[in-house]
Write a structure and sequence with these properties.
Length: 211
């Protein structure tokens, strides 16, 4: 059974700004922000059974097996926060995931963030995070004190997959798996392409204009 809540997918290469835009959309629209990457990193941090299974794939910049991610997604879609609407960030990344999603819910919009590849590596390798999910960039959005989160005082770290060789692997997966997902939703007529180059607030204005 499909249903009538609002469903938006943010799709784009790693480093295209999906997480940044999804947080802003959540604040503006009140929909749940479901990031499979964040959920998986939380599972790894907790050292849960799922986290132990997923960690090796993530560290290498490979995709976590569909069955694991699909279960995680279904659980998140069933949560109370997601009943008004949801913003998917990092899912679906394969056709099997797209098919599983389509069997559960209707997707109204797929926002495809467009960023040239030469910008992506610079964005990703300069990215630093705090455990609670605040994101910085060493050049474009540095914290006030080097290595310390402005919001929480936590130490900042670099994701294990945010190094140059892992970025190459992640981009290859995007091309070989996720391009087909974009084409799938293009056939349904729900994809809008948004220029993902520029200041996050400027990109956010473009995103809101196409929803
Ligand atoms: P990015 O979009 O910058 O690559 P994410 O935080 O979305 O980062 O994902 C980080 C990693 O988590 C991926 O490289 C992959 O290993 C895993 N992952 C996240 N979402 C999925 C998914 N839908 N299917 C398979 N693996 C996933």
């Amino acid at each position: 059974m499909t249903e009538q809540r609002r469903g938006i997918i943010l799709i784009g290469a790693p480093g295209s700004g999906k997480g940044t835009q999804a947080k802003k959309m959540k604040a503006a629209l009140g929909y749940a922000h479901i990031s499979t990457g964040d959920l998986l990193r939380a599972a790894v941090a907790e050292d849960s059974e799922l986290g132990r299974k997923a960690k090796g794939y993530m560290d290498e910049g490979q995709l976590v097996p569909d069955s694991l991610v699909i279960d995680l997604l279904k659980e998140a879609l069933g949560g109370p926060e997601a009943q008004q609407g949801f913003i998917l960030d990092g899912f679906p990344r394969t056709m099997a995931q797209a098919d599983a999603l389509d069997a559960e819910v209707t997707v109204d919009r797929v926002v495809a963030l467009q960023v040239p590849f030469d910008l992506i590596e610079e964005r990703i390798t300069g990215r630093r995070m705090s455990k609670s999910g605040h994101v910085y960039h060493v050049k474009h959005n540095p914290p006030k004190v080097d290595g310390v989160c402005d919001a929480t005082g936590e130490a900042l770290y670099q994701r294990s997959d945010d190094t140059a060789p892992k970025v190459v692997a992640r981009l290859a997966k995007f091309e070989s798996e996720t391009r087909a997902v974009i084409a799938h939703y293009q056939h349904k007529g729900v994809v809008v392409e948004v220029d993902g180059v520029g200041d996050p607030s400027e990109i956010f204005t473009r995103v809101m204009a196409v929803l």
